[in-house]
Structures are given as C-alpha cells and as structure tokens.
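Annotated sample (chain length 230).
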Amino acid sequence: MAAEGPPMAEQAYNLVKQDILSCVLQPGQQIIQAQIAEKYNLGITPTREALKRLEQEGFVQSVPRFGYIVSPVTLSDLHELFELRMILETAAVRLAVERASDESLAEIVRMAGFRYVYKDRASYSAYLAENARFHTAIALAAGNQRLADAVGRVLDELTRVFHMALDLRDSAEEKARDHVNLAEAIAARDMDRAMHFIHEEIAHSQRRVLEALGGRLGSWLTLKPRSTSW
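Output written by the structure step:
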C-alpha cells in the first residue's frame, strides 16, 4: 500500500489543481478534505499531501480551525504577475530573434494559430495549455531553460484569471492571429515587430483580465491599494 501513496498523491494534486485553475474551485472557496477525497475517489492521506503541496505553491491557504481555502486573487498579485510576464517574455522574444536556430523558429510558427471554442470550458483548458507551450517554446528557442521555466510558472499562476477572460467575449480568431503575427515576426528576425507584438499581447491580456474580473471584485479580489497606475 505504501508504494501506491505517491502516485495517488500526485493524482490528487493534479485533479485539485486543475479544478482551481479552471475555477471549478473559486478563489476564497473552502476546501474540505473529506469532500475532495470522496469526489475523486481518493484517500484522505493523498488528498492531504496534495493540499500541502498546493499550499507551498500558493494555490491554497491553510486557515486554523477551518481547513483550506483557495487562495484569493489580489490586484497586487495581478500587477506583479503581468509586470513579471512582460519582463520575462520580452527577454525571451529578444533572445529568440537574436540566436534561435532556423529549425526552432519554424517550429514556433508551426505551433501558432491554435484556437479555443467560446463557452467551452474544456476547450479553454486545452487552449491555455497550448498557449503556455507556445510561449515557453519561444524561451527554449532562445536557449535558456530557466527562462522557459520562469515563463511557464507565471502563466500557470495566471491560468485562473485567463479562464475568466476567455469567457468575456469570443476572441479566438483575434488571438490566433496575434500568435501567428508574433511567431512570424520572430522567425523573420524582425526585432521591432516582434517586440511590438509581444508588448501588445501582454498589455491586451492584462486589460481583458481586469475587465473580466470587474464584476467579481467583491468575491474574487482582495483589494489592496497601490500607488502604481494600471
């Protein structure tokens, strides 16, 4: 039985994390271990291990005498994540333009153009996973594994709010075109156009997330005043 523990804990971790990222479990919602274990047909021990790991990664918070809650989203969190995303991804694009192999650039162009189906939650998850692969591939083409890992972590943290932003309106064609434009600019080693497209994508994504969450400020966001302008 002991040998089965780690795989079950990993399974519990993946299932709960997916529910958090896709907003089945919403920010601030209480997580009851027994209910989670029953829902996924897993034992209490692997469920507890999964929640401890998710707490270490910042997806859930432990509350004394209450259990766990899904970590709230703060405006400060969003500002920092998008600021970091801008820093990391502009660096990745710049390095890819400068030193990626022609084969890597051709692969990035091949990956672009992926789409989602509006109002299809499963499609959103598949699309966002492909989006993360696309953007980390740019950093990998630049020859920097740590940069690719950092880009992936930031996009992972933003997945929850990306789900809400996709639900705002159908922009599947627009987003596909933006990715194709970015990929083709990088492949052409056109630094100015590549910088323009990555800046525009990230800035537009940030505006859309804030618009999508505007109606949920009371329940989703923990407001913390900032002096920095959005």
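Annotation: The chain has two domains: 2-71, 74-222.
Annotation: Residues 54 and 180 are 34 Å apart (CA to CA).
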